[in-house]
Amino acid sequence: MKRFFQPVVKDASSKKPTISASSSSVKESEITKETAAVDEEKKEATKKEPLKFLTWNANSLLLRIKNNWPEFSKFIENHDPDVIAIQEVRMPAAGSKGAPKNPRELKDDTKSSREEKQVIMRALSTPPFKNYNVWWSLSDMKYAGTALFIKKCIQPKKVSFSLDETGTKHEPDGRVILAEFESFRLLNTYAPNNGWKEEESSFQRRRKWDKRMLEFVLRTCDKPLVWCGDVNVSHQDIDVSHPEFFSAANLNGYVPPNKEDCGQPGFTLSERKRFGTILKEGKLVDAYRYMHKDKDMQCGFSWSGNPIGKYRGKRMRIDYFIVSEKTQRQDTGMRNSWTRDRIRRFLRE
Length: 349
Hints:
The protein is an alpha+beta fold. The protein has two domains: about 50-155, no CATH class; about 190-335 and about 345-349, Deoxyribonuclease I, Chain A. Helices cover about 35% and strands about 15% of the residues. Helix 2 (about 60-80) runs parallel beside helix 3 and helix 4 (about 200-220) runs parallel beside helix 6. The longest helix has 27 residues, at about 20-45. The radius of gyration is 26 Å and the shape is globular. The model is unreliable at about 1-20 and about 330-349 (pLDDT under 50).
């Protein structure tokens, strides 16, 4: 057999290669340039801001991946949002039983949790989702939780997970992700449900949430706000398909002591008043209602989970985009991006 490669004759006089001082300085210069280029890219990514947003209450991200992922993927490909805000991901936070949890990471310390995490990570590693960075805010169990997807070409200045001023603590049940950009803040929330009965403490929990939301919007008025997500309230009669039905709704005949707490959770007079106060005091606008003055019985609602109403076409709008009034006065282009046809809602089933 012929040899295709001839042995190389060693040169006894040869020496090990050395790098001259000039060669070394050239390489160092090249490395410096590369580092500077990377830093410049990061700066540019920080300067670039999202203009196209989508919010979706997934009602279990794992189930949506198993049952609706092709449809959702196609939806994302068609609309190409810069930001995807998700509520009710319903994935537990990392950490073994009895140990402190890490609400920014998916649980993977058991066989079942590892398998579920793999399902999610595989789905997010394929187009179009591989083009996004993901931030998680998770509950200790399969309950509530939020996620925020931001295109990799866009870098927020800061991401936190609480309504509090310091932002150091993580919001219980993973209900908040707050991203700060150069010219505005983006808030993704899954607000707690008001519940039916005062003695179950859900009324108090919702009142506390609304109080903290009011404090938040007043404290952060230095920048415009884009607030999106499941706010679990229908502000006006136009925001429900059948106002009288939802106003009179009750659970097993129970009537709360306070008349303003009567009705379907999310449509009680008490909740609606508090929500109105948040909008007014925070100088905020319901973007969808700003652009759609009339009731839309086909596409104007996002929830139909009432035990009776879901079978009778009775629905509510509890998923919102809320923006600062100042965006209308200061930047028409930005306002249009936030409030016109670029705002999309993927309605849950």
